[in-house]
Amino acid sequence: MKQRVVITGMGIVCPLGHDVETMWDGLMTGKSGAGPTTIFDASTFPTTFDAEVKDYDVSQFIKNPQLHQHGNRGSRFVLGACAEACRQAGIDTETDTPADNIDRTRMGIYLGAGEGSVDNDAFFDAIVKGWNNETHQMDWGRWGQVALSKMTATREMEQEPNMPAGHLALLTGSRGITRSCLTACAASTQAVGEAAMLVRGGKADVIIAGGAHSMIHPLGITGFNRLTALSTRNDSPTTASRPFSASRDGFVIGEGAAIVILETLESAQKRGAAVLAEIIGFGSTNDAFRVTDMHEEARGAVQAIQAALKDAGVTIHDIDYISTHGTSTAENDSIETLAIKTVFGNHAGNVPCSSPKSQFGHLIGATGCAELITCIKAIETRTLPMTMNLNDPDPALDLDYVPNEPRKARVEIVMNESFGFGGQNNVLIIRRFAE
Questions:
Q1: What is the spatial distance between Cα 56 and Cα 7, in angstroms, rounded to a whole number?
Q2: CATH 3.40.47.10: which residues of the chain?
Q3: Annotated catalytic residue 167
Protein backbone atom coordinates (compact mmCIF):
# COMPACT_ATOMS: atom_id res chain seq x y z
CA MET A 1 0.00 0.00 0.00
CA LYS A 2 1.29 3.47 -0.90
CA GLN A 3 2.08 5.71 2.04
CA ARG A 4 0.78 9.27 2.22
CA VAL A 5 3.70 11.70 2.27
CA VAL A 6 3.45 14.80 4.45
CA ILE A 7 5.70 17.74 5.23
CA THR A 8 6.30 18.34 8.95
CA GLY A 9 9.13 20.88 8.92
CA MET A 10 10.78 23.48 6.72
CA GLY A 11 13.83 25.69 6.94
CA ILE A 12 15.60 28.19 4.71
CA VAL A 13 18.71 30.33 4.50
CA CYS A 14 18.50 32.77 1.60
CA PRO A 15 19.18 36.40 0.61
CA LEU A 16 15.95 37.53 2.31
CA GLY A 17 16.79 35.96 5.65
CA HIS A 18 18.03 33.01 7.66
CA ASP A 19 14.65 31.50 8.53
CA VAL A 20 11.26 30.93 6.95
CA GLU A 21 9.37 33.72 8.68
CA THR A 22 11.96 36.38 7.82
CA MET A 23 12.02 35.20 4.21
CA TRP A 24 8.22 35.24 4.00
CA ASP A 25 8.01 38.70 5.57
CA GLY A 26 10.45 39.92 2.94
CA LEU A 27 8.31 38.48 0.16
CA MET A 28 5.17 40.04 1.60
CA THR A 29 6.71 43.50 2.09
CA GLY A 30 8.42 43.82 -1.28
CA LYS A 31 12.03 43.39 -0.20
CA SER A 32 14.79 42.41 -2.60
CA GLY A 33 17.85 40.35 -1.79
CA ALA A 34 19.86 41.85 -4.66
CA GLY A 35 22.82 44.18 -4.24
CA PRO A 36 26.44 44.73 -5.27
CA THR A 37 28.68 41.66 -5.22
CA THR A 38 30.82 41.58 -2.07
CA ILE A 39 32.05 37.97 -1.98
CA PHE A 40 34.75 38.77 -4.53
CA ASP A 41 35.81 41.73 -6.65
CA ALA A 42 33.38 41.68 -9.57
CA SER A 43 34.13 45.19 -10.80
CA THR A 44 35.49 43.96 -14.14
CA PHE A 45 32.64 41.53 -14.82
CA PRO A 46 29.64 42.29 -17.05
CA THR A 47 27.45 41.68 -13.97
CA THR A 48 28.59 43.35 -10.75
CA PHE A 49 25.68 42.38 -8.49
CA ASP A 50 23.96 39.31 -7.12
CA ALA A 51 21.73 38.17 -4.25
CA GLU A 52 23.96 37.10 -1.35
CA VAL A 53 23.28 35.58 2.04
CA LYS A 54 24.48 38.26 4.47
CA ASP A 55 25.69 38.07 8.09
CA TYR A 56 25.28 34.31 8.36
CA ASP A 57 27.01 32.39 11.15
CA VAL A 58 26.29 28.66 11.29
CA SER A 59 27.26 28.55 14.97
CA GLN A 60 24.02 30.40 15.76
CA PHE A 61 22.00 27.45 14.46
CA ILE A 62 23.69 24.22 15.49
CA LYS A 63 25.16 22.83 18.70
CA ASN A 64 28.58 21.65 17.52
CA PRO A 65 29.72 23.94 14.68
CA GLN A 66 33.32 22.78 15.08
CA LEU A 67 32.33 19.46 13.52
CA HIS A 68 31.47 21.32 10.33
CA GLN A 69 34.19 23.97 10.29
CA HIS A 70 35.55 22.83 6.93
CA GLY A 71 32.14 22.75 5.26
CA ASN A 72 31.81 24.74 2.07
CA ARG A 73 29.44 27.68 1.75
CA GLY A 74 26.50 25.54 0.64
CA SER A 75 27.07 23.04 3.45
CA ARG A 76 27.03 25.78 6.07
CA PHE A 77 23.81 27.22 4.67
CA VAL A 78 22.05 23.84 4.63
CA LEU A 79 23.01 23.10 8.23
CA GLY A 80 21.08 26.18 9.35
CA ALA A 81 18.10 25.37 7.13
CA CYS A 82 18.05 21.77 8.37
CA ALA A 83 18.26 22.81 12.00
CA GLU A 84 15.19 25.04 11.58
CA ALA A 85 13.24 22.34 9.75
CA CYS A 86 14.11 19.71 12.33
CA ARG A 87 13.05 21.92 15.22
CA GLN A 88 9.68 22.48 13.62
CA ALA A 89 9.26 18.78 12.90
CA GLY A 90 10.30 17.75 16.40
CA ILE A 91 13.47 15.98 15.26
CA ASP A 92 16.24 16.06 17.86
CA THR A 93 19.63 17.22 16.56
CA GLU A 94 20.98 18.33 19.94
CA THR A 95 21.69 15.05 21.74
CA ASP A 96 23.63 11.89 20.98
CA THR A 97 20.64 9.75 21.98
CA PRO A 98 17.62 11.48 20.35
CA ALA A 99 14.30 11.18 22.16
CA ASP A 100 12.12 11.77 19.08
CA ASN A 101 11.24 8.09 18.50
CA ILE A 102 12.60 8.10 14.94
CA ASP A 103 14.56 5.05 13.84
CA ARG A 104 17.70 6.59 12.31
CA THR A 105 18.09 3.59 9.99
CA ARG A 106 14.71 4.60 8.53
CA MET A 107 15.68 8.29 8.23
CA GLY A 108 17.22 9.43 4.96
CA ILE A 109 18.64 12.51 3.25
CA TYR A 110 18.16 13.62 -0.36
CA LEU A 111 19.73 16.88 -1.51
CA GLY A 112 20.05 18.77 -4.73
CA ALA A 113 23.51 20.30 -4.65
CA GLY A 114 26.17 21.23 -7.15
CA GLU A 115 29.87 21.46 -7.70
CA GLY A 116 29.63 25.23 -7.52
CA SER A 117 29.35 25.29 -3.72
CA VAL A 118 33.07 25.86 -3.36
CA ASP A 119 35.08 28.10 -1.02
CA ASN A 120 38.18 27.54 -3.10
CA ASP A 121 40.06 30.80 -3.08
CA ALA A 122 43.26 28.78 -3.56
CA PHE A 123 42.08 27.70 -6.99
CA PHE A 124 41.26 31.23 -8.12
CA ASP A 125 44.40 32.69 -6.57
CA ALA A 126 46.41 30.11 -8.49
CA ILE A 127 44.72 31.12 -11.74
CA VAL A 128 45.55 34.78 -11.16
CA LYS A 129 49.16 34.13 -10.19
CA GLY A 130 49.70 31.49 -12.86
CA TRP A 131 48.62 33.73 -15.73
CA ASN A 132 51.47 35.14 -17.80
CA ASN A 133 50.51 38.60 -19.03
CA GLU A 134 53.32 38.65 -21.60
CA THR A 135 52.48 35.38 -23.36
CA HIS A 136 48.75 35.51 -22.54
CA GLN A 137 48.96 31.90 -21.49
CA MET A 138 48.68 29.96 -18.26
CA ASP A 139 51.93 28.92 -16.62
CA TRP A 140 50.69 25.60 -15.28
CA GLY A 141 53.86 25.01 -13.29
CA ARG A 142 53.31 28.24 -11.40
CA TRP A 143 49.61 27.45 -11.10
CA GLY A 144 50.44 24.11 -9.50
CA GLN A 145 52.90 25.62 -7.05
CA VAL A 146 50.39 28.18 -5.81
CA ALA A 147 47.49 25.72 -5.68
CA LEU A 148 49.44 23.02 -3.84
CA SER A 149 50.75 25.53 -1.31
CA LYS A 150 47.20 26.44 -0.30
CA MET A 151 44.99 23.48 -1.14
CA THR A 152 44.36 20.89 1.58
CA ALA A 153 42.88 17.41 1.31
CA THR A 154 39.90 18.54 3.39
CA ARG A 155 39.18 21.51 1.16
CA GLU A 156 39.40 19.33 -1.92
CA MET A 157 36.96 16.83 -0.36
CA GLU A 158 34.52 19.58 0.56
CA GLN A 159 34.15 20.53 -3.11
CA GLU A 160 32.30 17.30 -3.81
CA PRO A 161 28.54 17.81 -4.28
CA ASN A 162 27.65 14.98 -1.88
CA MET A 163 29.28 16.74 1.07
CA PRO A 164 26.28 18.87 2.13
CA ALA A 165 24.31 15.64 2.57
CA GLY A 166 27.18 14.21 4.57
CA HIS A 167 27.13 17.19 6.92
CA LEU A 168 23.38 16.72 7.44
CA ALA A 169 23.90 13.04 8.24
CA LEU A 170 26.41 14.08 10.89
CA LEU A 171 24.01 16.70 12.28
CA THR A 172 20.94 14.48 12.44
CA GLY A 173 22.35 10.99 12.93
CA SER A 174 20.59 9.79 9.78
CA ARG A 175 21.73 6.32 8.69
CA GLY A 176 19.18 5.52 5.99
CA ILE A 177 19.00 6.26 2.27
CA THR A 178 21.27 9.18 1.38
CA ARG A 179 21.32 10.61 -2.14
CA SER A 180 22.38 13.70 -4.05
CA CYS A 181 21.32 14.88 -7.49
CA LEU A 182 23.00 17.41 -9.77
CA THR A 183 20.25 18.55 -12.09
CA ALA A 184 21.12 22.24 -12.09
CA CYS A 185 18.24 24.62 -11.38
CA ALA A 186 15.79 21.72 -10.97
CA ALA A 187 17.91 19.84 -8.43
CA SER A 188 16.13 20.48 -5.14
CA THR A 189 12.67 19.98 -6.67
CA GLN A 190 13.87 16.67 -8.05
CA ALA A 191 15.37 15.77 -4.68
CA VAL A 192 12.09 16.46 -2.88
CA GLY A 193 10.05 14.67 -5.54
CA GLU A 194 12.19 11.55 -5.59
CA ALA A 195 12.42 11.56 -1.80
CA ALA A 196 8.62 11.64 -1.68
CA MET A 197 8.55 8.62 -4.00
CA LEU A 198 10.90 6.76 -1.65
CA VAL A 199 8.76 7.56 1.38
CA ARG A 200 5.59 6.70 -0.51
CA GLY A 201 7.08 3.35 -1.47
CA GLY A 202 8.04 2.44 2.09
CA LYS A 203 11.82 2.84 1.67
CA ALA A 204 12.04 5.33 4.54
CA ASP A 205 9.88 6.77 7.29
CA VAL A 206 11.50 10.21 7.22
CA ILE A 207 13.64 11.94 4.59
CA ILE A 208 15.31 15.32 4.97
CA ALA A 209 15.09 16.77 1.47
CA GLY A 210 15.97 19.98 -0.32
CA GLY A 211 19.01 21.70 -1.75
CA ALA A 212 22.04 23.88 -1.13
CA HIS A 213 24.13 25.89 -3.55
CA SER A 214 26.36 28.89 -4.06
CA MET A 215 27.85 29.74 -7.42
CA ILE A 216 28.75 33.29 -6.49
CA HIS A 217 32.44 33.02 -7.29
CA PRO A 218 34.51 34.08 -10.32
CA LEU A 219 34.13 30.81 -12.21
CA GLY A 220 30.36 30.63 -11.68
CA ILE A 221 29.71 34.24 -12.65
CA THR A 222 32.00 33.98 -15.66
CA GLY A 223 30.12 30.92 -16.87
CA PHE A 224 26.68 32.47 -16.55
CA ASN A 225 27.86 35.71 -18.14
CA ARG A 226 29.25 33.76 -21.10
CA LEU A 227 25.86 32.05 -21.39
CA THR A 228 24.29 35.55 -21.38
CA ALA A 229 21.96 34.27 -18.65
CA LEU A 230 22.60 37.01 -16.07
CA SER A 231 21.07 40.44 -15.98
CA THR A 232 23.57 43.23 -16.56
CA ARG A 233 21.35 45.92 -15.06
CA ASN A 234 24.22 47.04 -12.81
CA ASP A 235 22.69 50.44 -12.15
CA SER A 236 19.64 48.95 -10.43
CA PRO A 237 20.19 45.51 -8.84
CA THR A 238 16.91 45.48 -6.91
CA THR A 239 14.84 45.89 -10.07
CA ALA A 240 16.97 43.64 -12.29
CA SER A 241 15.00 40.45 -11.71
CA ARG A 242 11.77 41.11 -13.58
CA PRO A 243 10.17 37.84 -14.70
CA PHE A 244 7.61 38.06 -17.52
CA SER A 245 8.48 41.71 -18.21
CA ALA A 246 9.14 43.00 -21.71
CA SER A 247 12.45 44.46 -20.48
CA ARG A 248 13.77 41.32 -18.76
CA ASP A 249 17.43 40.70 -19.57
CA GLY A 250 18.45 37.74 -17.41
CA PHE A 251 18.32 36.40 -13.89
CA VAL A 252 19.91 37.60 -10.66
CA ILE A 253 22.08 34.85 -9.26
CA GLY A 254 21.54 34.05 -5.60
CA GLU A 255 22.62 31.44 -3.09
CA GLY A 256 21.27 29.59 -0.11
CA ALA A 257 19.69 26.39 1.14
CA ALA A 258 16.19 25.08 1.72
CA ILE A 259 15.00 21.95 3.53
CA VAL A 260 11.68 20.20 4.05
CA ILE A 261 11.05 17.20 6.29
CA LEU A 262 9.10 14.49 4.51
CA GLU A 263 7.57 11.58 6.37
CA THR A 264 4.79 9.08 6.20
CA LEU A 265 1.52 10.24 7.64
CA GLU A 266 1.70 7.27 10.00
CA SER A 267 5.10 8.40 11.29
CA ALA A 268 3.94 12.00 11.76
CA GLN A 269 0.81 10.94 13.63
CA LYS A 270 2.74 8.50 15.79
CA ARG A 271 5.13 11.27 16.83
CA GLY A 272 2.41 13.88 17.20
CA ALA A 273 4.07 16.11 14.61
CA ALA A 274 2.04 18.90 13.04
CA VAL A 275 1.52 18.50 9.29
CA LEU A 276 2.23 21.56 7.13
CA ALA A 277 1.13 20.14 3.76
CA GLU A 278 0.90 16.91 1.80
CA ILE A 279 2.82 16.03 -1.35
CA ILE A 280 0.43 14.42 -3.80
CA GLY A 281 2.10 14.60 -7.21
CA PHE A 282 5.48 14.61 -8.92
CA GLY A 283 6.48 14.69 -12.58
CA SER A 284 10.02 14.51 -13.97
CA THR A 285 11.15 14.62 -17.61
CA ASN A 286 14.00 15.69 -19.86
CA ASP A 287 13.78 17.78 -23.01
CA ALA A 288 16.82 16.12 -24.62
CA PHE A 289 16.95 19.20 -26.87
CA ARG A 290 19.84 21.56 -26.10
CA VAL A 291 22.02 21.96 -23.03
CA THR A 292 20.77 25.45 -22.17
CA ASP A 293 17.56 25.78 -24.19
CA MET A 294 14.10 24.43 -23.50
CA HIS A 295 12.35 22.90 -26.50
CA GLU A 296 10.57 25.64 -28.45
CA GLU A 297 7.26 23.77 -28.05
CA ALA A 298 7.87 23.30 -24.32
CA ARG A 299 7.51 19.56 -24.75
CA GLY A 300 9.54 18.58 -21.66
CA ALA A 301 7.81 21.07 -19.39
CA VAL A 302 4.38 20.08 -20.70
CA GLN A 303 5.11 16.41 -20.13
CA ALA A 304 6.32 17.06 -16.56
CA ILE A 305 3.22 19.10 -15.69
CA GLN A 306 0.94 16.44 -17.13
CA ALA A 307 2.80 13.69 -15.27
CA ALA A 308 2.49 15.56 -11.96
CA LEU A 309 -1.25 16.11 -12.46
CA LYS A 310 -1.74 12.43 -13.26
CA ASP A 311 0.31 11.34 -10.26
CA ALA A 312 -1.68 13.65 -7.99
CA GLY A 313 -5.00 12.50 -9.39
CA VAL A 314 -6.17 16.06 -9.93
CA THR A 315 -7.21 18.14 -12.93
CA ILE A 316 -6.20 21.57 -14.13
CA HIS A 317 -9.30 23.00 -12.46
CA ASP A 318 -8.04 21.84 -9.04
CA ILE A 319 -4.84 23.91 -9.18
CA ASP A 320 -5.21 27.19 -7.26
CA TYR A 321 -1.73 28.62 -7.82
CA ILE A 322 1.42 27.90 -9.83
CA SER A 323 4.83 28.82 -8.47
CA THR A 324 6.70 29.31 -11.71
CA HIS A 325 10.36 28.77 -12.47
CA GLY A 326 10.18 32.39 -13.69
CA THR A 327 13.86 33.18 -14.14
CA SER A 328 13.55 36.57 -15.92
CA THR A 329 15.31 35.27 -19.03
CA ALA A 330 13.64 35.83 -22.37
CA GLU A 331 13.44 32.18 -23.32
CA ASN A 332 12.43 30.61 -19.99
CA ASP A 333 9.56 32.97 -19.28
CA SER A 334 8.15 32.62 -22.78
CA ILE A 335 8.39 28.83 -22.98
CA GLU A 336 7.15 28.32 -19.42
CA THR A 337 4.11 30.44 -20.25
CA LEU A 338 3.59 28.35 -23.38
CA ALA A 339 3.78 25.16 -21.29
CA ILE A 340 1.11 26.40 -18.88
CA LYS A 341 -1.14 27.46 -21.77
CA THR A 342 -0.64 24.14 -23.52
CA VAL A 343 -1.68 22.10 -20.48
CA PHE A 344 -4.32 24.41 -19.02
CA GLY A 345 -5.82 25.58 -22.29
CA ASN A 346 -8.53 28.24 -21.96
CA HIS A 347 -8.32 27.87 -18.17
CA ALA A 348 -4.69 29.08 -18.06
CA GLY A 349 -5.61 32.72 -17.51
CA ASN A 350 -7.70 31.82 -14.47
CA VAL A 351 -4.78 30.32 -12.51
CA PRO A 352 -2.55 32.87 -10.75
CA CYS A 353 1.16 32.22 -11.04
CA SER A 354 4.18 34.15 -9.79
CA SER A 355 7.95 34.04 -9.37
CA PRO A 356 9.62 34.52 -5.97
CA LYS A 357 12.94 34.75 -7.85
CA SER A 358 11.97 38.36 -8.52
CA GLN A 359 12.81 38.98 -4.85
CA PHE A 360 15.32 36.44 -3.53
CA GLY A 361 17.09 35.75 -6.83
CA HIS A 362 17.86 32.43 -8.47
CA LEU A 363 19.27 30.07 -5.85
CA ILE A 364 20.30 27.54 -8.53
CA GLY A 365 20.34 24.07 -6.91
CA ALA A 366 18.42 25.30 -3.86
CA THR A 367 15.80 27.32 -5.69
CA GLY A 368 13.09 24.69 -6.20
CA CYS A 369 12.80 23.77 -2.54
CA ALA A 370 12.93 27.44 -1.55
CA GLU A 371 9.95 28.02 -3.82
CA LEU A 372 8.22 24.93 -2.43
CA ILE A 373 8.47 26.55 0.99
CA THR A 374 6.79 29.69 -0.39
CA CYS A 375 4.02 27.39 -1.67
CA ILE A 376 3.56 25.93 1.82
CA LYS A 377 3.38 29.44 3.26
CA ALA A 378 0.87 30.41 0.56
CA ILE A 379 -1.36 27.54 1.69
CA GLU A 380 -0.87 28.41 5.36
CA THR A 381 -1.61 32.12 4.98
CA ARG A 382 -3.94 31.95 1.97
CA THR A 383 -1.73 34.57 0.37
CA LEU A 384 0.09 34.44 -2.96
CA PRO A 385 3.60 35.90 -3.29
CA MET A 386 3.99 38.53 -5.98
CA THR A 387 6.08 38.81 -9.11
CA MET A 388 7.99 41.97 -8.26
CA ASN A 389 9.19 44.50 -10.84
CA LEU A 390 6.48 43.53 -13.32
CA ASN A 391 5.85 47.10 -14.49
CA ASP A 392 6.06 46.56 -18.25
CA PRO A 393 4.37 43.23 -19.03
CA ASP A 394 5.47 41.43 -22.14
CA PRO A 395 2.38 41.62 -24.39
CA ALA A 396 3.09 38.07 -25.57
CA LEU A 397 2.88 36.79 -22.00
CA ASP A 398 -0.67 37.29 -20.78
CA LEU A 399 -1.21 35.05 -17.76
CA ASP A 400 -2.06 36.27 -14.25
CA TYR A 401 1.45 36.71 -12.83
CA VAL A 402 0.32 38.42 -9.56
CA PRO A 403 2.17 41.65 -10.35
CA ASN A 404 3.87 43.73 -7.66
CA GLU A 405 1.61 42.97 -4.68
CA PRO A 406 0.81 39.81 -2.68
CA ARG A 407 -2.77 38.63 -3.05
CA LYS A 408 -5.25 36.95 -0.75
CA ALA A 409 -6.71 33.92 -2.47
CA ARG A 410 -8.13 30.44 -2.14
CA VAL A 411 -5.04 28.23 -1.87
CA GLU A 412 -5.72 24.53 -1.42
CA ILE A 413 -3.68 22.80 -4.14
CA VAL A 414 -0.46 24.28 -5.51
CA MET A 415 1.94 23.40 -8.32
CA ASN A 416 5.66 24.16 -8.15
CA GLU A 417 7.69 24.15 -11.39
CA SER A 418 11.47 23.89 -11.82
CA PHE A 419 13.32 23.65 -15.13
CA GLY A 420 17.10 23.27 -15.29
CA PHE A 421 19.94 23.45 -17.79
CA GLY A 422 20.43 20.09 -19.42
CA GLY A 423 16.72 19.83 -20.09
CA GLN A 424 15.71 18.79 -16.58
CA ASN A 425 12.02 19.39 -15.81
CA ASN A 426 10.51 18.71 -12.39
CA VAL A 427 7.06 19.59 -11.10
CA LEU A 428 5.60 19.03 -7.62
CA ILE A 429 2.00 19.30 -6.47
CA ILE A 430 1.10 19.80 -2.82
CA ARG A 431 -2.17 20.39 -1.03
CA ARG A 432 -3.51 21.59 2.27
CA PHE A 433 -3.51 18.60 4.62
CA ALA A 434 -6.78 16.99 5.58
CA GLU A 435 -7.11 13.67 7.33
A1: 26
A2: 5-122+153-271, 282-431
A3: no
The verdict on pTM exceeding 0.85 is yes
Catalytic residue (one of 325, 353, 369, 375): 325
Residues 382-435: tens digit of each pLDDT: 999 999 999 999 999 999 999 999 999 999 999 999 998 888 999 999 999 998
Spot the catalytic one: 185, 353, 369, 375.
185
The domain covering 282-431 belongs, at the CATH homologous superfamily level, to: Thiolase/Chalcone synthase (3.40.47.10)
Active site annotation includes 217: no
Q: Is 325 a catalytic residue?
A: yes
- Give the pLDDT confidence of 255-286 residue by residue, as tens digits: 999 999 999 999 999 999 999 999 999 999 99
Distance CA 12, CA 82 (A): 8
Instruction: Classify domain 5-122+153-271 by CATH number.
Output: 3.40.47.10
Cα–Cα distances in angstroms (integers) from residue 10 to residues 72, 83, 133, in the given order:
22, 9, 50
Annotated catalytic residue, options 167, 213, 295, 362: 362
